[in-house]
Design a protein that fits this description.
Heat Shock Protein 90; single chain; alpha+beta; three-stranded antiparallel sheet; 8% strand; elongated; 26 helices; five-stranded mixed sheet
């Protein structure tokens, strides 16, 4: 949140201070600080404090000095709602927080709200929106670095890869996020530990999917140890449940049962579904221990919780029904067992769950065999074999699909690298085509004339300006991105030399930047405008008595700058006619502006079919040419930190 988060040993004194404090403002300050801790440790206490904070803020809606408390309120409310699985409530409060932080927040506050919002987006599978807001956070942090927030971004990207089933990338990103948080120079706060718990839970899931039970258990043990030591109780039942499941997958029934028991005994988890799942798994453990009556009682508890809180989720009921059927069969309650078996088959068919169908038919075959009903036993064994084969095929298809996703994602990454390489090659080509040899020759020839005419002051002045332009050109040839400020400075120097040396004051120019553009912060591709300015000079103004070039920069949208280059030249039609008679300028456009258009198309990689350069022929009232207007859409990119 906006203030440093309190440590565990600070919470009790703050609570004591809150009890003895009656002044509204002072209570709000203490509550705000306590919430930074309780949101990640004790949701019930957090909700109580949020209610009071909402009441206090409701009386001061017009007090602009309290905007930071309102921001923290909405951000905390959204995080708590997300943990409560109340995703619509979470999104509503994140919307309020984003509006506030975009208006008056610091860079770190903006990035933090964006990153937190992506947690809700990921939970509701709004993957594209999550990527957009992570991109926004990255953009902010490139200008104002924060290693802690960068680590959280890496973690979020890891979970996006996990959801996309690009498991190798997900593992790589989550391990990197863990490393980034571990090497932070400052002390970790409670939110850092919360993210670490998410990271290791994600790694536990990934190892489990790869049947690496030992590493899965190791990861979940880290999560449990962290949650217990940091008093993060709100999701502790889920952590116990995950660890129990990992032990169960490795056939360690004793440890599995121990952690399932811890899950049901934890009173602090706000979601009863974790308790329901733990009861169900305890029922399975009892079944394996041949404690059939105990198994039925535990499964019954699980069933009641699922029916109360998630009645429409069939996945919760399939295994419970199948396990109940087995327990009843072992207790010789054959009619009830058969009823439960058939119900399990029905649920599995509705879910297309071949694994459950295979297991249930196998158990039914054994059930009928024990009754010496060999015909039914054989029939159900055949059905078991059928669904077992279908399940194996389903698993293989799933693995094939996951491999395709993995290699598809890797292919996209490689294609992105190739595009960047292509853009770099085009950039070098563009820079080679940037300075027309005639411009260089004429500029140097003019300086030489000043020298031979004994105008040393003029020669020195223009030589210094020319040398600066050449130095900039060479320096920028190593850069892909420069600030808009430097791009404008380069254009100004280029036009100044044309005005004073080549055209001997027969050329005037204007460069105008809209007030809402921060040219020192916004980045653009290196020397992207100069070819169009040069084209205007060489084709439009070379024969004019008095030439004028206007360069205007404005924001087209949040991601794009619109640059307009306008001249009062002879127009494209007349220029083409003259080109047929003047070979030295025939290839100029293909060398300069054509390369630049290719660069723009690559840089606007989201839609390569759009037109990013628009050329308009200007005419007077009588339809006569009076110049050319070029509109260039330049993508805003981040200036690399140095």
């Amino acid at each position: 949140m906006t203030n440093s988060l309190p440590l565990l040993d600070e919470v009790e004194p703050l609570e004591y201070k809150l009890k003895s404090q009656s002044a509204t403002h002072e209570r709000m300050v203490i509550i705000d600080r306590l919430l930074g801790y309780y949101v990640f440790t004790d949701i019930l206490r957090a909700e109580t404090l949020l209610s009071e904070q909402e009441e206090i803020l409701g009386k001061n809606l017009d007090d602009q000095s309290k905007w930071d408390y309102r921001l923290n309120f909405h951000q905390n409310k959204a995080i708590v709602a997300n943990m409560r699985y109340a995703y619509n409530v979470s999104r509503r409060h994140f919307k309020e927080a984003i509006q506030l932080v975009d208006m008056v927040g610091t860079a770190q506050q903006q990035a933090e709200v964006y990153i937190d919002f992506t947690g809700t987006c990921i939970n509701v599978r709004q993957i594209d929106k999550a990527k957009i807001y992570l991109g926004k956070a990255e953009k902010v942090l490139k200008k104002f670095p924060d290693f802690r927030l960068n680590a959280r971004i890496t973690a979020r990207y890891g979970f996006l890869s996990l959801i996309s089933r690009d498991y190798s990338k997900a593992t790589e990103l989550l391990l990197e996020a863990d490393k980034q948080l571990s090497i932070l120079p400052e002390t970790l706060d409670i939110k850092d530990y919360y993210f670490l718990s998410l990271i290791h839970s994600g790694l536990g899931t990934l190892y489990e999917k790869n049947d690496d039970h030992e590493r899965s258990i190791e990861s979940y043990l880290k999560v449990v140890a962290m949650a217990e030591s940091m008093n993060m109780r709100s999701r502790l039942s889920w952590n116990y449940l995950n660890l129990g499941n990992a032990y169960l997958a490795s056939n360690d029934l004793k440890n599995a049962e121990a952690y399932f028991l811890k899950a049901v005994k934890n009173p602090n988890d706000v979601n009863p579904i974790s308790h329901a799942s733990a009861y169900a798994n305890l029922g399975y453990c009892a079944l394996k221990k041949e404690a059939y009556q105990e198994s039925l009682e535990l499964l019954e508890k699980a069933q009641h919780l699922f029916e109360e809180y998630e009645p429409d989720v069939l996945e919760n009921h399939g295994n419970i029904t199948s396990w109940r059927a087995q327990a009843l069969a072992f207790l010789s309650k054959n009619e009830e067992a058969l009823q439960q078996f058939n119900m399990a088959i029905q649920i599995a068919e509705e879910l297309d769950d071949y694994k459950l169908l295979s297991a249930t038919y196998e158990n039914m075959a054994e059930f009928y065999a024990n009754l010496e009903n060999w015909e039914s036993a054989y029939h159900h064994q055949v059905m078991h074999s059928k669904y077992s084969d279908l399940y194996v095929r389903q698993v293989n298809e799933q693995r094939q699909w996951e491999l395709e996703v993995k290699y598809g994602a890797e292919k996209k990454r490689q294609e992105a690298k190739l595009l960047r390489l292509r853009a770099t090659k085009l950039q070098l080509k563009a820079l080679r085509a940037q300075m027309n040899p005639h411009f260089l020759y004429n500029a140097l020839n003019s300086i030489q004339n000043y020298i031979t005419s004994n105008k040393g002051d003029h020669a020195a002045k223009y030589l210094a300006k020319f040398a600066k332009l050449m130095r900039q050109s060479l320096e920028y040839s190593d850069l892909e991105i420069i600030s808009l400020e430097k791009e404008i400075e380069f254009l100004g120097d280029y036009l100044y030399i044309n005005e004073t040396l080549r055209f001997e004051d027969k050329l005037t120019y204007e460069i105008y930047v809209e007030d809402d553009i921060e040219e020192d912060i916004l980045g653009v591709p290196t020397m992207i405008v100069q070819p169009y300015v040069e084209n205007a000079i060489e084709h439009g103004l070379r024969t004019q008595e008095q030439g004028l070039i206007k360069v205007h920069f404005s924001l087209a949208d949040e991601q794009t700058i619109l640059c307009v280059v306008e001249d009062n030249g002879i127009g494209r039609k007349k220029a083409r006619e003259m080109q047929l008679q003047d070979e030295e300028y025939q290839n100029h456009k293909s060398r300069g502006t054509k390369i630049t258009e290719d660069r723009l198309r690559i840089l606007h990689s989201d839609d390569e079919n759009k037109v990013f350069v628009k050329i308009i022929d200007l005419q007077d009232d009588e339809g006569q040419a009076k110049g050319t207007r070029v509109e260039i859409k330049i993508p805003i990119v981040d200036v690399p930190m140095r």
